Amino acid sequence: MAPTLPLPSSYSQITLQSRPKAAIDPNLKSGTFKLESSVPLRVQDVKPGQVLVKVEWLSLDPAMRGWLNDSRSYIPPVQIGAVMRSGGVGTIAVVGAGVDGFKVGDWVYGQLGWTEFATVPVKDVEKINVSPKVSPSFYLGALGMPGQTAYWGLLDVAKIQAGETVVISGAAGAVGTVACQIAKLKGCKVIAIAGGADKCRFLEEELGVDKALDYKSKGFKEEFKKSVGYLDVYFDNVGGEILDLCLTRLKKGARIALCGAISAYNDPSPKGLQMYLNLISQRAKLEGFIVFDYADRYHVADADLATWVDEGKLKVRETRMVGLDHDRRAGSSGAPPSHASIPAITHSV
Fold first, then answer.
1. Region of 334 on the Ramachandran plot (φ > 0 left; ψ -120 to 50 alpha; else beta)
2. Could you give the CA distance from residue 179 to residue 147 in angstroms, rounded to a whole number?
3. What is the pLDDT of residues 193-210, one digit of tens each?
4. What is the C-alpha separation between 81 and 30, in angstroms, rounded?
5. Taking the mean position of all CA atoms in its chain, how far away is CA 117?
6. Burial code of 87-101, b = ≥16 C-beta within 10 A, e = fewer?
7. Is there a contact between 5 and 105 (Cβ–Cβ < 8 Å)?
8. What is the C-alpha to C-alpha distance for residues 268 and 110, in angstroms, rounded to an integer?
9. Which of 208, 212, 230, 232 is nearest to 220 (CA)?
10. Is the model's pLDDT at 346 over the cut of 60?
11. Contact criterion met (CB below 8 Å) for 316 and 347
12. For residue 182, which phi and psi values (nearest 5 degrees)?
């Protein structure tokens, strides 16, 4: 076993205690999650082929809400009593026997979970490159799963082309902000949908979308029709009424990349679509996709995304919380809140 850094004798972690039927209960004694303090940290438990990672940053994403449901999905649900699943970045603290290519202090990304220390097979982590321009936390957003999701959803599922009108909902979120910028880089007219004047101002003034619409405003639907006209591509992060609205504004051959449905994540009885017949009349396509299906091509997106960040063409915006206990507001937007000393990266939608 390789030499280690000075380590504490114990750490904290957060486990799933019960499955929510609607919104989560943030009480860490009687609610959805349980805070477990003073978990023994035993270096001798690191087996050959494993590494012990000191978790530095975690991501809080809307998709995590779906991982709590005990239902058929693209990934097994988090089990009761298990550490809450989450993407994370951290530094290697211990290298197990037989592990090559990694050393103590290396930065890595993986599904590390809501824990201060994670022992994982080395095959389940990826070494990441950090620099003055690239923070390790970028691999939880633009250079990580959200960036990959935006990339493949637009370029492979929706197959955007220069000059097309592209509508993106949840545009101020982790996936949405990257999707807006990729669509602009590819020469599209981009109409962004977000909640609140501040988010819309950010999307227009900093990310350069052609128009940002506040779905909370009274005149949203009329402004949407005026700004969009008819759309070629809709990248959907929210589902619900906005998806139905977009279904009424399809061009012939329009494509909808169905990425998420945050409007329904806490709804025990979500409503079905009403305007789907327009898919038939406009010979349009609605296609769901999961970013994990592109794992064998991640390197392609990695290269493009990293280049765009380095060249300043892809801007990265993060909301950083030092300590997950400061992120209670995330529970109302779909991502579960938690309480630990681990810093968190959150993304508004």
1. left
2. 8
3. 999 999 999 999 999 999
4. 13
5. 22
6. bbbbebbbbbeebee
7. yes
8. 31
9. 212
10. no
11. no
12. -65, -45
Q: What angle do CA 311, 316, 322 make, to 5 degrees?
A: 140
Contact 148, 322 (CB under 8 A): no
Q: Which of 82, 76, 129, 83 has the alpha carbon at shortest distance from 106?
A: 129
**Helix/strand/coil percent split, the chain, to 5:** 30, 25, 45
The conformation of residue 115, written as its DSSP 8-state character, comes to B
For 236-256, what is each residue's pLDDT tens digit?
999 999 999 999 999 999 999
> What is the tens place of the pLDDT at every residue in 34-56?
999 889 999 999 999 999 999 99
Cβ atoms of residues 194 and 212 within 8 Å: yes
The three-state secondary structure class of 261 is coil
Could you write out the DSSP letters of every residue in 25-87?
A: ---TTTSSEEEEEEEE--GGG--TTEEEEEEEEEEE-THHHHTTS-S--SSPPPPTTSBPP-E
Rounded Cα–Cα distance for residues 96 and 279 (Å): 54
- In angstroms, the CA 108 to CA 54 distance is 10
- Asked whether the beta carbons of 235 and 154 are under 8 A apart, the reply is yes
Interatomic CA distance for residues 200 and 193, integer angstroms:
8
> Which region holds residue 253: left if phi is over 0, alpha if psi is between -120 and 50, else beta?
left
Check if the beta carbon of residue 349 is closer than 8 Å to that of residue 61. Answer: no
3-state secondary structure at position 192: strand
Cα separation, 216 vs 5, whole angstroms:
50
The dihedral over CA atoms of 213, 143, 78, 176, expressed in degrees to the nearest 10, equals: 10
Distances (CA, A) of 191 to 202, 203, 323: 13, 10, 35
Tokens of 195: 């909640």
Q: Are 294 and 148 in contact, with CB atoms under 8 Å apart?
A: yes
CA separation for the pair 191, 231 (Å, rounded): 9
